[in-house]
Amino acid sequence: MHGTMHASSRAITLWIDFLCLPSPSLDLYKGVDVYKFDFLKGIIFASIVAVLTLSAYTVFYLYPSFEKLLRKNITTDAERVAVHLGHMLNIANDQIDSQSLPDDFKHQIEIMLDDFELMKVKLFSPEGLIVFSTDKEDVGEVNEKPYFREIVSRGKIYSKIVRKDSMTLEGQKVTTDVMEIYVPIILGGKFTGAAEVYYDITENLLLLKRQFQRFNYTLYPISLCLLLGIIFASMKAEKSISRLKKMDEKLQQAHDQLEQKVLERTGELSNAYLNLQREIDEHKQTIKEKSGLQNQLIQAQKMEAIGTLAGGIAHDFNNILSAILGYSDLVIRELPPGDQKRQDLGQVIKAGLRAKELVKQILTFSRQSDQEKCPVMVHLIIKEVLKLLRASIPATIEIRQDIYPDCGAVFADPTQIHQVIMNLSTNAVHAMEEKGGILQMILQEVELGADDCAGEPGMFPGRYAKLTVSDTGCGMYEAVLERIFEPYFTTKDVDKGTGLGLSMVHGIVRSCSGMIQVESERGKGSVFNVFLPVISQGFFMEEEEEGDLPGGNEKLLLVDDEKEISALIKRNMEELGYKVTAMVDSLKALDEFRAHPDYDLVITDLAMPHLSGDALIQEIRKINPGTPIILCTGYSERISSESARKKLGINDFLVKPVTREELAKTVRKVLDRKSE
Predict the structure, then answer these.
(1) Angle at the Cα of 134 from the Cα atoms of 130 and 136, rounded to 5 degrees
(2) Phi and psi at residue 277, in whole multiples of 5°?
(3) Closest Cα partner for 103 from 114, 89, 83?
């Protein structure tokens, strides 16, 4: 390598004076082409650069490459030595120690030194203790160097080329060029110790150096001949170069003119393209906005249709529920206490009341009914939802619950809370339909601080009921997670989801001054955390003590076109002592009132054939304006409780299905108000 650098220095010295000469002036060298002279200087400079580049390539790439190849070959021999040593040793307890050396080990090492041309061999235990060395003075020493602990003991080879009169890895001075290699001995996949091998590479490096010197001595004569050839060729090409220079000048002028025209034309085309692109973008945006408006219109029509359907079925459905709840209550009252049938019918009534709330929820969703909030014990609704889920989910899904029964109440619509829990649970079940998994539901009361509520509108520090619904299903991608609360967004098939569930859940939670958080990872599942503010005990109204229902002996006129409901109300009121005249035809009921206008109270349905309830009320008011009237209806778009009181002058308003207790208290309240 040093010979190569010396030859490069000689080459630079040969040409440095020539390159530093000033360019000849026309006065001194008349008839000499200055362009030609500069060109020759450039050619010579390029040749020198080529020679230096080739020299640098030899010094900084070829020589290290051959040295690296030498290191690799010697390392391969060292690995073979390590494998051979591993077979020679009697290794017990998966590590090399002094007991691992066979009796003839020293003799075998001497043979190995000759076969592999080694200078020195050492054996280390896994802790770095030298258990054998061709230099006996080394035995018993411990190698605590970082390279042994961090590289060799982890099963990796570590090597170093040590130049003459330099220090080895262990701090010993060598008198020759040496390659020092540490090779781990691995038996059964476990590190049992290591071998250190010394190779004398003096002759190898000397041979490599001589080869590169021969290469350099050959390189420079060839480079000089190449340089002289280039100079001769360039002198022959003098005239051609001059003509080419003039042609190049003319071509450059033409190029500049053409380039100017191209730039001008390109600017015009660029402006035209930008205008066209702007028009295309505006057109796309218009189409997108139009499509969005069409989708909104379609969804609005769907919502209107849902509302119409909800209003249409609410009246008939509430009438059906009135009969179910009423006659179930009659049967319960006739059964003795402790009878199993009382409990069974109690479940029927409970389901009927849930259906009643469900109808109210449907009407709320369709914007046709107001929400009714009250203190709600969330853990009771969770238990009810879990009962429904256990009967419907696949056996491959396990339900786990951790419900804190003393969690405080929240102020919300019970049906909406039921809907939130059911929707989150159903989504979790859908995520685990194929492979099964674990559905876990946790309820606890937590304290949220200002940092927890930051960025959440309507949230304030305080006590919150935290509901966690988690699953081990398929999880969601980040892009899906960002849109799950958007209305009509769904990843389910057309026949399995509308995209309204989580949107409604989000709206319900927000309306209760709460928040909902979601965590999900594809392939691991999802976790929904719902936070609802806990209300203080002052929000609870004292429950009325149960006792006998209020009754009386007044005369009542009952008008309802449903025979079952009419008969049910008549029976309930007569059991409370009232004298009830029940009519299923509103026209005949009007004739009856004309004939006997002394009824103490009129109870009438709203939606009836021939003569509607509001028309009947107006006629009764003409006959006897002071008669108290209770309007009872399943549902009507035409009238509400407030408008009925203002326009018709009724005394009270009931929505079917009406329980016996609710009807009894309302009747007594209206009659008592009349007598005041």
Answers:
(1) 65
(2) -65, -40
(3) 89
Closest of 502, 499, 497 to residue 469, by C-alpha: 502
CA–CA dist 148, 60 (Å, integer)? 30
pLDDT of 348 above 90: no
At residue 20, the 3 state secondary structure works out as: helix
Identify the DSSP state of 100. Answer: G
Does residue 309 contact residue 554 with C-beta atoms inside 8 Å? no
Distance from C-alpha of 557 to C-alpha of 548, rounded to nearest angstrom: 23
Contact of 334 with 668, CB cutoff 8 Å: no
- 185 strand-pairing partners: 193
282 vs 573: CA distance, rounded Å: 71
- Asked if residue 330 lies in contact with residue 571, where contact means CB atoms within 8 angstroms, the answer is yes
Per-residue pLDDT tens for 242-276? 777 888 888 888 888 898 889 888 888 888 888 99
Q: What is the 3-state secondary structure (H, E, C) of 476-545?
A: CCHHHHCCCCCCCCCCCCCCCCCCCHHHHHHHHHHHCCCEEEEEEECCCEEEEEEEEEECCHHHCCCCCC
Nearest Cα to Cα of residue 654 among 627, 676, 636, 671: 636
Q: Among candidates 117, 177, 178, 122, which has minimal Cα distance to 152?
A: 122
Give yes or no for a contact between 133 and 173, defined as CB atoms under 8 angstroms apart.
no
Q: Per residue in 560-570, pLDDT tens?
A: 988 888 888 89
CA 518, 519, 523, 525 torsion-angle sign? negative
Buried residues in 290-318 as b, exposed as e (16+ CB within 10 A): eeeeeeeeeeeeeeeeebeebbeebbebb
Residues 1 and 212 sit within 8 Å (Cβ to Cβ): yes
> What is the C-alpha to C-alpha distance for residues 576 and 556, in angstroms, rounded to an integer?
12
pTM of the model: 0.40
Q: Which carries the bigger pLDDT value, residue 39 or residue 566? A: 566
Beta bridge partner(s), residue 374: 412
Q: Which stretches of 118-252 are assigned E, i.e. beta strand?
A: 118-124, 130-133, 158-162, 178-187, 190-200
Measured at the CA of 608, the angle between CA 602 and CA 614, to 5 degrees, comes to 55
Which sign, positive or negative, has the C-alpha torsion 541, 545, 547, 553?
A: negative
